[in-house]
Amino acid sequence: MNNTFLKACRGEKTDYTPVWIMRQAGRYLPEYRRVRGKVGFLDLCKTPGLAAEVTLQPVDILKVDAAILFSDILIPIEAMGMKLEFHETKGPFIDNPIRDEASVWRLRTLNPAEDLPFVAETIKLLIKQLNVPLIGFSGAPFTLATYMIEGGSSRNFVNTKTMIYRNPGLFHLLMDKLTTMIICCLKAQIEAGVHAVQIFDTWAGALSPGDFREFELPYVKRIISGIETDVPVIYFPNNSGAMLNLAVESGADVISVDWRIGIADAVTILGDKISIQGNLDPTTLFGTHDIIRERVSDILHGAAKARGHIFNLGHGILPDTPVEGAVAMVDAVHELSSK
Amino acid sequence: MNNTFLKACRGEKTDYTPVWIMRQAGRYLPEYRRVRGKVGFLDLCKTPGLAAEVTLQPVDILKVDAAILFSDILIPIEAMGMKLEFHETKGPFIDNPIRDEASVWRLRTLNPAEDLPFVAETIKLLIKQLNVPLIGFSGAPFTLATYMIEGGSSRNFVNTKTMIYRNPGLFHLLMDKLTTMIICCLKAQIEAGVHAVQIFDTWAGALSPGDFREFELPYVKRIISGIETDVPVIYFPNNSGAMLNLAVESGADVISVDWRIGIADAVTILGDKISIQGNLDPTTLFGTHDIIRERVSDILHGAAKARGHIFNLGHGILPDTPVEGAVAMVDAVHELSSK
Predict the structure, then answer these.
(1) Which one of B65, B72, B115, B258 is the catalytic residue?
(2) Which residues in chain A have Cβ-Cβ distances shorter than 8 Å to B320?
């Protein structure tokens, strides 16, 4: 197996900078759209043969150095009792959002083997076929809580924040339950064979540093220490460049950063104990190949002093991205970092 | 006139910390909704008597230390030839977005006295009645460019970034025209009597630090030096906490920061030549009065070493905010900073 990605996660020397792309199995690929044309999004996540198929697609097409399990961060909360739907244009929608104590107590304790058997099955199918490491993942507890409280995506997170500012005890109770669930799910993924895990904190940037420290960081720490694993843990606190010093305390082996911070500045904050992942603006892939190459070069140089660097976008690849832009990025990373 | 706000902008000693609220004349106020019930949003902006009336409302109701001209950052680009509408739920919509060179060349050069006479008229009405300073404003060129290119609000700014990454010359041409227009509008507002101006860069945070330095900062600098004024200039690069070191180069007297950065960290970056404005999470106003008071206290302490501090939210007040939350914040700022 090509373990360049795992070496970079651990801060070991590599022959070149490994690269993968958040949401690399996705709508920008015609091959993915062909599979999705036959099956709904949630069914795709829950059908091991198909989930494995779309997980493998970008590895073949883009030549990335890691695969990421095809699934969704909201799958486990559906199993906890949230009524989840995916609308084609509006994204996730939850019919029974959490607004009171009863609805928090009502959440089911999850047993991954029983409630999410397709996850381990997909992982086992993939392990047999992959020649690069497989990344498992979970949503971070705050990010999952926002979907559960808001009932979907949100612009200002008014319901979530109102709970934090009016009923912090209830919010902590919800976070506690989510933390237990996440530890359980990540352990199950590791047991099934994933080689690394990433915790996606898509909405961490909605919090002030003070609120992040009080209402999210302790739970992320508990997860990372609680999964008791040797596999590398990547933490992605999106849009949190001005509080990276707090994310450093999470205990993660790798911090993934979005594009709103210069990667050299981020490396300085992370120090020599944590590897970095990132951080090309996803829209760069809509640009000319010269621009893509130039920006890849800038980021490789900016990350030169990192303990380890895994190249990635600063956020998920966008649905309308030209495939040739993604290919150009991966090629540029491999070529320019080998010199 | 109570000039505490202006003193803080200039870094002079004040008896207490002045406070105002971005979008303080807005839908959260029943008094505002009463006026808006009779007239469309754009008509309200363009009717001096009514615009002055809603500008004054929060000064009376909240006892804030500054008023801000009621208008919209998109009004001048309408006068440049963009077909602008405001949809009740979806926000601004532009029917003829800029996608090619011809549409940039077609933009009209603006003459504020002729094209936007209502702006100076509103300012003149207000100056007679206000006992606190009046803030004029403009959108920053990048932020205005995104609306013109995307045709409204945007999530990922794909059209704007594609222009930057494929046709940077055309983007620079558009920015050049916007810069000239903004200088002209701000000069006209200052001539009509505003006591300070704020440049709203709502979407600055969509840019990487490298792109900000190349595609926005030079224009903001040109505006701030180009208006050749003694009135304080406030620059608000929203969601840019990890590139505040660049915003410092803008030449602004005050930098306004959002809530994603600890204010003490921001003060350290701004140094002793620039005052700070901000930065309470707007959703805090949905919380208990105890929480509001506690968070106000934290921010006042965090900003203790600032050259000058103008208290504000980290972004505009949200439409559903309870008025009593806003009142509690203003009272807490005045009381706690007077001690």
Answers:
(1) B72
(2) 158
Domain annotation covers residue B145: yes
Smallest Cα–Cα separation from A168: which of B294, B61, B317?
B294
- Nearest-Cα distance to chain A for B224, in Å, is 24
Contact check, Cβ <8 Å, A165/B288: yes
CB-CB neighbors (< 8 A) of B243 in chain A: 241, 260-262
Tokens matching residue A173: 């109770």
Q: Is residue B15 part of a domain?
A: no
Q: Which residues of B touch A (CB under 8 A)?
A: 156-158, 161-162, 164-166, 205, 207-211, 239-244, 259-262, 265-266, 281-284, 286-288, 291, 295, 298, 314, 318, 320
Distance CA A27, CA A35 (A): 10
Number of neighbouring beta carbons within 10 Å of residue B152: 19
Residue A15 a catalytic site member: no
Size of interface A-B (CB pairs under 8 A): 115
Q: Which residues of B touch A265 (CB under 8 A)?
A: 209, 242
Give tens-digit pLDDT for B73-130: 999 999 999 999 998 777 899 999 998 999 999 999 999 999 999 999 999 999 999 9
Contacts of residue B191, defined as CB under 8 A and 6 or more positions apart, other chains included, come to B120
For B68-85, the DSSP string reads E----TTHHHHHTT--EE
Assess whether pLDDT exceeds 80 at residue B325.
yes
* Cβ neighbours around A246 below 10 Å, total: 21
Asked if the model's pLDDT at residue B235 lies above 80, the reply is yes
How many angstroms away from the CA of A244 is the closest CA of chain B?
9
d(CA A57, CA A30): 10
Complex-level ipTM: 0.96
A242:B260 CB<8 A: yes
Residue B329 domain flag? no
Pick the catalytic residue from B36, B99, B213, B260.
B36
**With the CA atoms of A203, A204, A210 and A213 taken in that order, what torsion angle do they form, in degrees rounded to the nearest 10?**
140
Active-site option among A28, A32, A147, A235 = A147
Query: In this predicted model, what pLDDT tens digit does every residue of A321-333 receive, in sequence order?
Result: 999 999 999 999 9
User: Which single residue is written with the structure tokens 């699934």?
Assistant: A71
Q: Is the per-residue pLDDT at A89 higher than 80?
A: no
Number of domains in chain B: 1
Task: Tell me the per-residue pLDDT of A112-153, one tens digit each, with 9 for 90 and over.
Answer: 999 999 999 999 999 999 999 999 999 999 999 999 999 999
Peptide bond into B279 cis (omega under 30): yes
> With contact defined as beta carbons under 8 Å apart, do B326 and B3 qualify?
no
Parent domain of B268:
20-279
Q: Report yes or no on B139 lying in a domain.
A: yes
Asked if the Cβ–Cβ distance from A242 to B265 is below 8 Å, we say yes
Closest CB from B164, B205, B318 relative to A260: B205
For residue A195, the distance in angstroms to the closest alpha carbon of chain B comes to 31
CATH number, position B134: 3.20.20.210
3-state secondary structure of B318: coil
Q: Mind telling me how many Å the CA of B150 is from chain A's nearest CA? A: 14
Q: Which residue of B has its CA nearest to A210?
A: B262
For residues B195-208, give the mean pLDDT. Answer: 98
